[in-house]
Amino acid sequence: MNRNKIMCSFREQADMMEDRINLGIESNRKGYIRLNFIDSEGKPINGVSVKIRQKSHHFKFGCNLFKYKCFDSEEENLLYEQKFLGLFNLAVAPFYWNDFEPQKGKPRFEKDSVWIDRRPPSEAVLEFCAENSIEAKGHPLFWPVMSPEWLPENWDGLKHYITKRLKEIATRYDGVIKSFDCINEATTVVLRDHEPHIIEGHYRNFNPLSGNYPEWVFKQTDRFFAESRLVLNETTALSWGSYNKELSNYYLLAEKLIKSGCRVDTIGLQYHNFCAPDNMEELANWAYNPIRLFKVMDCYGNLQRPLSVSEITVPGYDDDMQAEVLYNLYRIWFSHPNMESIIYWNLGDNCAIKKNETWTEQKYMSGLVRNDFSEKPSYKVLDRLINKEWQTNAEYDSRENFLYAKCFYGKYEIEVCKGNTRIKKEIDFTPTGYDEFYIVL
């Protein structure tokens, strides 16, 4: 594995990359706020001291929470939670149908549901999110690859149970869970006309499907979910790999669904580098190529929908290289005007799929922390970006009765002092919300 060859596109394109990153972050992730200082009668007050402290991001930095309360010891569970909270403001809750409802008619909503590794019950995940002011995302509502064995082996029968599942989940969680991956990997799952066999690989559907099932599922979902955002989610190969501008298969599917009236709120672009060390140079030709990455985002941005890098795996064969890759990737993604969230997949090396009949992910060592929860360089890099470089914390002395400040979008605590008077106010600064606020002393 030749690190110089793997990283060559980042380095050869550094001037263009840094220019677009810096311009993009300044114009897309920050804005100007105006603070007006007045007394209780509305009269202006001059000569105040101001402290601006960012409390949270508007942009979503996420990770799956699949290993919540799934470790052998309470110490490990606590370390997992601490490392998660150190970086992320969005948590992905598992809704894989085979483990969510292994027994027909008995969905695993409640915290006391039967324990399944990497599949904490939804109520447990939501409790953690509520306690820590984290947004929840559900994954997925429908994915043929992980369906329960009790489903009927015909499309008409299957539609009945899909509808029932959507209604049950929506009754509890519409608007509570802010977004769901509605359809997962539709352009990757093979639509077979014969009974599948276990040896046929990871991407196999256990039930006959209509070729129009994505449209049908989206429209059924829209019947029950009025508030939660619906995401169309697709694999890395179809999102970034086999890119052919507006003729890309995934682009054509998304465009077709939108034109047919489906409520596709967000376009999900997975970014799993499931790649052996010997193949990393070939992968890097497109996956670690800034020009290619920007072109893909620009193209999918033409659909006039927000984008999400919805699942990320970057191999950790070399800790320092993983950190450098993620440093570049996160800045590229964060800078793009259409991007609304970046979601790493497995927090730790011990959080990935170990091995089942057809698939394993632990061999990629892609975690941001090691098995003992010590931080890899990649964790520290993201911590520096998310919690330091991409936050606004500043102090001002204003001679006027107002102050302009350029800030990252997010929630803030504003502290204003005048003599012995000290006032604190919390504001929510968003791209489409208020940009002018009054502080009454």
UniProtKB/TrEMBL annotation:
One of its GO terms (biological process) is polysaccharide catabolic process. It comes from the Bacteria. Keywords: Carbohydrate metabolism, Hydrolase, Polysaccharide degradation. InterPro entries: GH, GH10, GH10_dom. Residues 72-385 form the GH10 domain. The keyword Transcription regulation does not apply. One of its GO terms (molecular function) is hydrolase activity, hydrolyzing O-glycosyl compounds. This is Endo-1,4-beta-xylanase. It comes from Ructibacterium gallinarum.
